[in-house]
Design brief:
2 copies of one chain form a homodimer. By secondary structure, chain A is mainly α. Chain A contains 10 helices and 3 strands, in the order H-H-E-H-H-E-E-H-H-H-H-H-H. The first copy, chain A, folds into 2 domains: 3-86, Winged helix-like DNA-binding domain superfamily/Winged helix DNA-binding domain (Arc Repressor Mutant, subunit A); 92-243, Four Helix Bundle (Hemerythrin (Met), subunit A), CATH 1.20.120.530. Chain A has helices at 3-16, 25-38, 50-57, 61-73, 92-114, 119-137, 144-160, 167-191, 198-209, 213-243, and strands spanning 47-48, 78-79, 85-86. A 3-stranded antiparallel β-sheet of chain A has the order 1-3-2. The structure holds a DNA duplex (30 and 30 nucleotides).
DNA sequence: TCAAAGCAAGTGTGATCACAAATCATAATC
DNA sequence: GATTATGATTTGTGATCACACTTGCTTTGA
């Protein structure tokens, strides 16, 4: 009876090997659409068709329709009464609504994270900050995609530290919903001669490294409010112009 | 050219007729599963199969699998690495996590609602309260299903008044996630000689009718915390018993 | 000339089939 | 007699098809 020995051997093997996992086509479609949505690759009010996306992603309609259904339930997309689906349009009310929810939930998440982030996590977000600075140093080529990605990594590295399996998916849903709006804001920033976004992130980092939950929350609120208030004023200006 | 007359006639018809709308099988399956989940008809850790549900609901597998996918993305169900799906098990961490999120978000929603509920809405929730009392009056037959439904109506009538299209779906997701737990708690209440649940609701109503947002929030927190803390202590007792 | 009817292409939804992976029960082996 | 191997059944996944509804365009009739 060498059961114990075999068991131990198996454990040794398990320690060496990473679980391979399986990724369905539907999962890939879903992640791809998510990425596009958060990155703002789709415009607000744009309608999406199952077959069109299936062609673009080179699969059949089946994985696409299931991914679309999932995105609709998280309000990342909108099902019209005609049964067609579109990315939700931007309205003033929706903008305010989203910002309020984000302040509430992401604020809570960062306050929780402030007490739980160790030097390891702090180092990680500092690395992301450094990458950001590096990118800005050679500013001749402004890479909006990379900017969005880094911003996302920075925030979610923090949120992951909050230790709440319930809050994080909600934050993801909020990002999904505000993604299309934010992209518009970022472009507007670019052409309006943007101020230094990184300074907000630096303030967050210093607050977190001193475990100052209150300061972290306030810095975060300032950070995420900026594009919303910017977009808000721009929207109001457009509305006023349309009325004339 | 009788265009104006025709137009007017069409408007008259439209005023009489209600839009019929269309409901897909998938939608019905989804609502049905939602109802079952919130009502706690499924036990925590129970695994669900597509074909099994399709048979139970007398449809094909197609609408069921899409509905399951949607429920998985809102964390109402859990996809195991084996690709089977189950209703998430109860753990202490998850319980605390859910309660914290519910206090945060539902608290905010009721605070917003406090400023926005008119006499009309107040009357509606008072009606629900009256129904509750009436049900308790003939207490020989305790109808847990009806209790759950009334509780849900009471809370969501309030949340609907908060005027946030972003917060409400999040609250629904939270109810979906805590539904299976709550049912366990309600059964436990029943057999432990429950205290009057309605008193918490009465306090909420009085706070709302005086537009006292702070009091409303506190009463709500007390209301939703009760089953969680109860279940929490019960779970800890079980864990201690299992360890011996 | 213009509006309304009719036709055609496109789209979502549900059913069915094929296939691969997982699970379970039975049999074979040490 | 316990453990491993093998086979059958079940299950999820993706593809394809049929049907109904929508949409946009063309044609027809006044």
């Amino acid at each position: 009876m060498q059961k114990a020995a075999i068991e131990k051997n198996n454990e040794a093997i398990a320690a060496q090997l990473a679980p391979v996992g399986r990724e369905t086509v539907q999962d890939r479609v879903y992640s791809e659409l998510r990425r596009a949505l958060i990155g703002g690759l789709f415009e607000p009010s744009q309608v999406l068709t199952i077959r069109g996306l299936a062609d673009a992603l080179v699969t059949s309609t089946m994985p696409v329709r299931e991914a679309l259904g999932r995105l609709i339930t998280e309000k990342a997309l909108e099902a019209l009464p005609n049964r067609s689906v579109r990315v939700p349009p931007i309205t003033l009310e929706r903008l305010d609504d989203l910002l309020r929810a984000r302040i509430l939930i992401e604020g809570e998440a960062i306050a929780l994270a402030a007490a739980r982030m160790g030097p390891r996590q702090i180092a990680t977000i500092e690395t992301i900050l450094a990458e950001w600075d590096e990118m800005r140093a050679l500013k001749h080529k402004k890479d909006v995609d990379r900017e969005v990605t880094l911003n996302q990594s920075f925030h979610f590295e923090i949120y992951r530290s909050c230790g709440s399996a319930v809050l994080i998916p909600m934050i993801e849903s909020l990002w999904l919903q505000s993604g299309p709006c934010i992209r518009v804001a970022i472009y507007a920033f670019s052409e309006a001669g943007e101020v230094d976004t990184a300074q907000y992130h630096r303030r967050i980092v210093t607050a977190l490294s001193t475990q100052d939950a209150q300061a972290a929350r306030e810095s975060l609120v300032a950070d995420i409010s900026r594009p919303f208030t910017f977009l808000r004023s721009k929207l109001q200006a457009n509305a006023a112009k349309d009325q004339t």
